[in-house]
């Protein structure tokens, strides 16, 4: 697609591409300007430091430029063609009895759709990165629902922002300036002067330093504090003098502050989902928000990390009814997080092949899980060298969605946004979608050939 707006600067070679979406975090900022010299990205405007690096890294020397095959007896890789790599990968997946498909969170919904169909064709398990971040949020929402809204509503209406167990200053650098605290909205014309910010975190983070109220909850005591807050909202006495490291009087004050606002928003992160309590923490957080709606308008939004992890859950849900940890080994979709999640399967050694795309479990999974991954036949699709590509059997490079390829992604508030292409990919590099399409058709042929022999 041609850039929507391209205005030339003083230099004849420089161009500015406007209205670009940043494919890094779940904020999906859509107001970037990319400065190009021919096909080379030389600078960005409006992007945070991480978003800037995302665009710059597309053309640095760390890219994988050709498919690779790892020698079984060493860590050495041999360059191969795409045809060879796709055939080899298809053979691995077609022969596997229970392959694991993992990742999906940093690629387009179009690629995710084909990937899930491939997993179903292979009778495998497909899982996205939610299983190690906001999976507990999904479980809680499935249990008690979720009062949600869009980030646009937050910008225009919210006069109370609560960041609980997250640090957007570092994880989502433009979140506060675009949507929550600093922007001027329709009903928040004075920006941050019309808002009150509360940060609940065991550590005095850089986000906490900008808060009007900082609540230093004791590590792992989020559930207890939320429970006490609900008690205070009901006007009942909190029996303990201190709950989660917070004095009883402070909790009552916090509850009264929340009730005094017109529109509140609870943003929560992995500090709540991946600590003691897990999905029960989110369960009671949702219940707290529901209680607040008896007094004022209140919503919550999960601070999703990868730019399209929300999209992966959406695609899996409309295809098969489940948002992650989806198992096709019985011929139909099953869902049992803790049993059918990627790390659990690797830790128990239950898969006989693995396929990783748009994520890097080698940098985040336990060593024991990755040791097993390194022992079985594996396929990894990634534009860059990562710890995961280093221990994979077949590695295929791909284009970067939102930089070199178009694609749909879902923002953290589940609003779909179309990412744009701003530069051409290195010559000969295929997209995730094309690689998956070719794999799907080849595996289908191999499955058919095998079926005809029986």
What structural keywords apply?
454 residues, Rossmann fold, Dimethylsulfoxide Reductase, domain 2, 9-stranded mixed β-sheet, 5-stranded parallel β-sheet, NADH dehydrogenase activity, Prok_molybdopt-oxidoreductase, Formylmethanofuran dehydrogenase subunit B, oxidoreductase, formylmethanofuran dehydrogenase activity
Description:
- Helix 3 runs parallel beside helix 15.
- Helix content is 34%, strand content 20%.
- It folds into three domains: 6-59, no CATH class; 68-131 and 307-453, Rossmann fold, CATH 3.40.50.740; 135-302, Dimethylsulfoxide Reductase, domain 2, CATH 3.40.228.
- The chain has helices spanning 49-56, 82-95, 109-122, 135-144, 151-157, 168-171, 175-180, 222-233, 248-259, 270-273, 279-292, 309-320, 342-348, 367-375, 432-453; strands at residues 6-8, 14-20, 32-37, 40-45, 68-70, 77-79, 99-103, 125-128, 160-164, 196-200, 213-215, 242-243, 246-247, 263-268, 297-302, 326-327, 334-335, 353-357, 378-381, 394-396, 407-410, 416-419.
- By secondary structure, it is α/β, with parallel strands linked by helices.
- The termini are far apart.
- It has 15 helices and 22 strands.
- Residues 1-9 have low confidence and may be disordered.
- Strands 6-5-20-19-18-7-8-16-17 form a nine-stranded mixed beta sheet, with helices on one face. Strands 11-10-9-14-15 form a five-stranded parallel beta sheet. It has a four-stranded antiparallel beta sheet with strand order 1-2-3-4.
